[in-house]
Amino acid sequence: MTPAEKKVVYIEDDKYIGAIFKKKLENLGYEVVHVLEGTVASEMIAKETEMADAKVILLDLMLPDTDGFDLLRAIKDSEKLKHIPVIVLSNIDGEEQMKEAMSLGVADYMVKAHYTTDQIAERINQVIHKQEALGDSDKV
Length: 140
Description:
By secondary structure, the chain is an alpha/beta fold. It has helices at residues 15-27, 38-47, 68-77, 95-103, 117-138; strands at residues 7-11, 31-35, 56-59, 86-90, 108-111. Strands 2-1-3-4-5 form a five-stranded parallel beta sheet, sandwiched between helices. Helix 2 (38-47) packs parallel to helix 3 (68-77).
């Protein structure tokens, strides 16, 4: 896979956490687009083309300017983006929020404080490989 084929969009308002994950994923060969603001992410979702080639979207639900669930709904409502797996990567550790996210079709819900960067990177790889296997079987 070339770097363009391994694009990850990471919607995370915390610059420090975003930089840590960006570096980790880039070291594994991913191209990482780190989006710091929910409003910018919302514009990218509306344009569709800027995210359409992502292999996975990492989404923090706690954003100061936008409700992460609204972004998730917009992604899942988009014809060009709905096929992209979304992994919620948040510090919201509530069963209600987890159930809502899962009902909206996320590939996984991970509480940042419960996982190492290595574990999260491994889960991203698993989700991408699963999506690729499903994508190959869905093509008719």
